[in-house]
Each structure stands twice: as structure tokens, then as C-alpha cells.
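CO-FOLDING WORKSHEET

Operator: S.A.
Ligand of interest: magnesium ion
Run index: 284
Mode: holo prediction, single chain
Checklist:
[x] sequence pasted
[x] SMILES validated
[ ] output reviewed
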Amino acid sequence: MADSGAPTLAAFAAALPPEEARPGLGRPGARPVEDADNAALAATPPLLKVEALNQYYGGSHILRNVALEAACGEVTVILGRNGVGKTTLLKSLMGVVPVRSGTVRFGGADITNDTPYQRVRRGIGYVPQGREIFSRLTVQENLQMGLAYKRGGTALPKELFELFPVLRQMLHRRGGDLSGGQQQQLAIARALAAGPSLLVLDEPTEGIQPSIIKDIGRVIRMLADTGLPIDGKPQRMAIVLVEQYYDFAAELADRYLVMERGEVVQRGRGADMEREGVRARMSI
Ligand SMILES: Nc1ncnc2c1ncn2[C@@H]1O[C@H](COP(=O)(O)OP(=O)(O)O)[C@@H](O)[C@H]1O
Ligand SMILES: [Mg+2]
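OUTPUT RECEIVED:
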């Protein structure tokens, strides 16, 4: 594993340009999208591809022909006000609710009918809205839950603690005793424990103090840019991020989608969000 001479996360973090050299983390100035990049992206099939997804709760039509793609190395942000179907979309991606029609493909395979644990095993990590920490289990036990569906080793990757040092200090505390921000970090670390190639996050900034929001933003950018060296060589991850906090979303987005009443009504490049009036759509 990581002890086979693979560089540690700390080494990767050290190799990253300092934050002041990467203005706005995900902003275009930090990572210009060149034509060559675009050509390369077009040539690489997206890791995740959702097509014509429809979802109902009883008789209510909740998702309407939703299409979504996510590629490695990119943060794809889904924006939309309360109740438009963002969480339902992520639950459908994870198989937490069955899909009525449409397809979900991951790494080229049709996973539309996979169970949630099969999806985790294929390499999808999920950080649910509200975090869903096991409050009576310790931090360590919560992290071990993240390994439950993994084949092979059950040791917690040490990279998780390099990413979120506070979790090492809190290892034997109960999840329920952590602050909201610490619980969010725990939920992300739990999802990363199995070494996913796609990380899906549902409103990770909800109810969290600004300093931790910044830390979480930095981690998300880094996961997309360099990945985590869990189980060998780090690979750039695909990130799907649901957000209502516009500034955080705009800072991280390589691609964006806006949802209204179960439909994707706008999509584009993160660099164009401001110009394309996404902020106004969120605040109406
Ligand atoms: N379990 C459920 N049963 C019935 N309706 C639901 C359920 N969960 C969500 N809804 C409804 O589905 C719509 C979309 O909800 P949700 O996906 O949670 O939106 P968002 O995450 O964008 O706030 C809302 O109208 C909500 O009231
Ligand atoms: Mg939601």
C-alpha cells in the first residue's frame, strides 16, 4: 500500500503551488482551460454519465430527464434552491432510491440497477446531506464503516489523517461529540477511506464555520487535481458537488449545472458562471 515507497499526501501537498499562487483555488486564473485541455477532455470519456434520468416520489415527478457527466480532474457543481431535486439526484446516483427511467454509467459500466454497496465497491464515495455520522460510534469506528464494503485490507489509510489532522486527535471520541465542521470532515474521510475515484458531496458547507469551509474547499480542489495516494498511485478524482453557497461553488467549479423543479435549466464552464448570471438565479 502506501508504505511501498509511494509518496505521502503531505509530499503531494508540499508539491502544490502555495495558495497565493493559485488565486481562488478553482478560478480560471489558477487553472486555465486550454483548447488542448478541452480536446483531451473530449477524447476521454467521462467517468460518470447519467442520461435521461427520471425519478418520482409517489405521483410527483421529481427529476425530469436529467443528464449529468463528471470527468476525472474536474469539480462538477450542481446548484439550485431548496427542493429542486439535488439530493434526489445524488441518491439516484448512489442507488439509495431506485431509478424510474434513464441510465447511470460509471467507468463505462451500466450501474443503473446496482445496489449502493456495489457502487461504493466500484469506486463511488458519498458524503450525504446532513453528514449522517454514527453519533454513538467513535471517530475510528465511523471511519472503519467506510471500509466495510472494501475487499482486502481493513487498515485505515494514514492519508486520511494527513488530510484532516483533527480526526487523529479525536479518534476515540464519539462522532456525536464532534462539532458540525469536524463531523463534515469525518464524513468526507469516511467516504475517502475506500479509495473512490468519484466523490459525491451533498452541501458540505451547510451549517459549518468559515475556516472549516475553506479547509474543505482546499481538500476538494486537491482531490480533483492530484487525488489521494490510497491503494497505490494517486489518481485525479472526479468530484460531484451539490451546493447552495454560491461563492464556494463558484470558487471550485470546473463545470456547473443549475437545477430548477427537477430539471437542469443551465450548464456551462465554472469560469463562465458569473458572466452567465448563475448568482442571480440562486438568489431570486
Ligand atoms: N422521501 C421523500 N418522499 C416524498 N417527497 C420527497 C422525499 N424526499 C424529497 N421529497 C421532495 O422531492 C423534492 C426534491 O427534494 P430534494 O431532492 O431533497 O431537493 P434538494 O436537495 O434540491 O433540496 C422536494 O419537493 C421534496 O419535498
Ligand atoms: Mg438537498
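REVIEW:
The CA atoms of residues 15 and 230 lie 17 Å apart.
The first strand starts at residue 48 and ends at 57.
[x] output reviewed
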